[in-house]
Amino acid sequence: DGRVIYVGTFSKVMLPSLRLGYLVLPPDLVDAFVAARGVADRHSPSVEQAAMADFITRGMLERHIRRMRVLYAERQEALVQAAQADLSGLLEVAPSDAGMHLMCWLPDGVEDAQASRSAAAERVEAPALSSYAIERYPRPGLMLGYAVPPDDTRAAVRRLATALRTQT
To answer: What is d(CA 19, CA 9) in angstroms, rounded to the nearest whole number?
Structure first.
């Protein structure tokens, strides 16, 4: 019904320093958003926009996304397998169809903020889910990323297991 606005960025699909975003708007909102854009920022990165447009037009973005989906599926699988091997009883890790992080659940009674601090002491970045929430989550948990190579992931999971053993 012409009421959906889709907002996106190329930061995660391509690279953060590209700093290009996009809007998909109903036709009757285009003029208003163009005017707002002009007030908010007078300079558009025209070289980057032209390069990205060419990249998209030639089908290169679609190919890049397909390659990255395969790569990150492999990296996620490495995290899930390492977690099953080393974190059983310490952290529940399940695959997800989206993103580059997994929400992972700690056993009841384990404080996620303290578990996150223990992980940091072992050089593992594992933010507490409670730090992302206004209200309390039903279970304590950690956020784990899997954008790094599988060998790095396996080593980090072993360090995380060391950290979490002090929590239970």
So the answer is: 7
- pLDDT tens digit string along 112-121? 999 999 999 9
By CB atoms closer than 10 A (0-12, 13-18, 19+), residue 138 is exposed
CB 116 within 8 A of CB 126: yes
| Six-digit token string for 159 | 């360090």
Beta strands in 17-106 (DSSP E): 21-24, 101-105
**35-72, pLDDT tens digit by residue?**
998 888 877 788 999 999 999 999 999 999 999 999 99
pTM of the complete model:
0.79
**Beta-bridge partners for 92:** 105
Q: What is the spatial distance between Cα 96 and Cα 104, in angstroms, rounded to a whole number?
A: 11
Q: Residue 133 in contact with residue 99, Cβ under 8 Å?
A: no
Q: Under a CB-based contact definition with an 8 Å cutoff, are residues 83 and 164 in contact?
A: no
